[in-house]
Design goal:
By secondary structure, the chain is an all-alpha fold. It contains five helices and no strands. Helix 1 packs antiparallel against helix 2 and helix 2 packs across helix 4. The chain starts with a helix and ends with a helix.
């Protein structure tokens, strides 16, 4: 997979993470841009790592993107006056792991299946 589609999927997954969190706490979606921005900023920082751009669906890329997005997002959120409740870091880490690592696992499985199909019999 080329980097741009992978970056867009990561962005969509990060946006979904925040939308799910806000829905579970009945927050106003008027606050959505301010709440998701720290995590998207951190995601952008993760994508500055060359390994992520070279091999975006690899497990190694996911293991770079996930913690940088999680920890970086929480740090930026706190630094910009956003609240971080006791459970938020854990819930953020688990949810982002499922989303950011999960789509990569599916993409790798599909890539392997397509490679097997294209092999001559």
């Amino acid at each position: 997979m080329k980097p741009l589609p992978a970056l867009l999927i990561d962005g969509a997954a990060t946006c979904a993470f925040m939308a799910i969190g806000m829905a579970s706490h009945a927050h106003s979606y008027a606050d959505y841009p301010a709440r998701v921005a720290p995590f998207l900023l951190a995601l952008g920082a993760a994508w500055l790592v060359p390994k992520v751009r070279r091999s975006p669906i690899s497990l190694q890329a996911g293991l770079i993107v996930w913690p940088i997005t999680t920890v970086g997002g929480l740090i930026v959120r706190k630094a910009t006056g956003g609240g971080i409740s006791g459970a938020m870091p854990i819930i953020s880490a688990v949810t982002l792991a499922i989303l950011l690592l999960g789509w990569r696992a599916i993409a790798r499985k599909r890539a392997r299946a397509n490679a097997v199909k294209s092999e001559p019999n």
